[in-house]
Amino acid sequence: AGMKFLLQYVGCFFAFFSAGFLIISTWTDCWMVNADDSLEVSTKCRGLWWECVTNVFDGIQTCDEYDSIYAEHSVKLVLTRAMMITADILSGLGFLFLVLGLDCVKFLPDEPLIKLRICLVSGVLLLLAGLPGITGSVWYAVDVYVERSSLLFHNVFLGIQYKFGWSCWLGMAGSLGCFLSGSLLTCCMYLFRETSSGRFHSAYSLRKGYSSAATVVTNVHLPSSQTATSKMYAVDTRV
To answer: Which ranges does the record mark as transmembrane (predicted)?
Structure first.
């Protein structure tokens, strides 16, 4: 039981921070940051939804949102948005299911098997959340790196060059955390399924045995002077 609680709490810890990292990564503005060291006046970051420029001297930040979501965007931007939003939704649902499945939460306290299945469903959701999260963040980072390398290879200078920033790293970390917590909740928690199932069936058999014994004792102590009609009535009542 102690190991089961430990796995639940460790999985909950990683699920909470992983879902938070994915959400913060999706809605922050530093997926790409300027990599030109000669530009010391400002720092320029690009996110999935807007682009911000921060003055190095006074720290003033100005942001420009991209065009409407229905406007024409690059395939990289559109697919990364879709994958990160999907990862946010799945990881959030996985964390909520995990909270309901914790033994310390007073939800279905008399149904340990159902709570264990809720934890398993949470693990599956977190594993599914890690897949689009890691795909979107790694693909975005690789695309930025390939674009920058091709420009350097062909000696093309466009005034500013980018490398992937902390938002992209945060998306990778959140995705890996989802994989870790999902693995704990599916693979390790599954080991407790047979134990809980065995305890449930043994308890059910024990209750059934007590019920049968009580019926036999009742039948033995029936008074011998009962008439046939009263005996039939007693049998019908027990049925």
So the answer is: 7-27, 120-142, 169-192
Q: Which amino acid is at 67?
A: D
Sheet holding 42-46, edge to edge: 61-65, 50-55, 42-46, 32-34, 162-164
Query: How many domains does the chain contain in total?
Result: 1
Would residue 108 count as lying in a domain?
yes
For residue 163, give the amino acid letter: K
Burial class (CB in 10 A: 0-12, 13-18, 19+), 136: buried
The whole-model pTM stands at: 0.72
In a domain, 41, yes or no: no
Residue 150 lies in a domain: yes
Q: Let me know: does 56 contact 115? Beta carbons within 8 Å.
A: no
Which structural domain, as residue segments, surrounds residue 25?
A: 1-29+75-161+168-194
105 three-state secondary structure: coil
Does some domain include residue 235?
no
pLDDT digits (tens, 9 = 90+) for 55-95: 877 778 888 877 665 556 678 888 899 999 999 999 999 99
